[in-house]
Amino acid sequence: MKVLGIILGCTPLFMFSQKNQLGKLELSMFNNKEVVVSVDGHQYDACSKFQLNNVESGEHSIKVYQTKKYINPINHKVSKRLVPVFSGEVFVSDSKCTSCVINEYHQNEVRIQR
Fold first, then answer.
1. pTM across the whole model
2. Which one of 5, 48, 54, 62 is at 20 to 30 Å from 82 when CA atoms are compared?
3. R_g (Cα) of the chain, nearest Å
C-alpha cells in the first residue's frame, strides 16, 4: 500500500517535468508586402514579416489579408480595406520554427526549421 501511495504521489511530478516545448510561427508574402495576419481568430497588426513566438503545437487556423487603399467617391475620404489573400490550416511542431510563405498564386508554402 505504501508503494502505491509513493507511485501515485510522484506521478504528477513526472508529468509536469515533461513540459510541452512551444513552437514559433513565421509568415510572409513572396513579395514582402505588408499583411495582416489572424491566427485562431486573433488579429495582429500589419507587417511585412509576421512572427509569433510561444505557439502551442498542433493545427492553427490562419487568415492572411492585404490592405488596399479605398477612396470614397462621395466624400473623398481615404480608408484601408482588408482583402483576403489566404485562409487555411497550419501545423506548428514542438520547439521548431514553422515558416510559411504565401506565393503569387495565394498558396501556402510551409518549411519547418529547427
1. 0.73
2. 54
3. 21
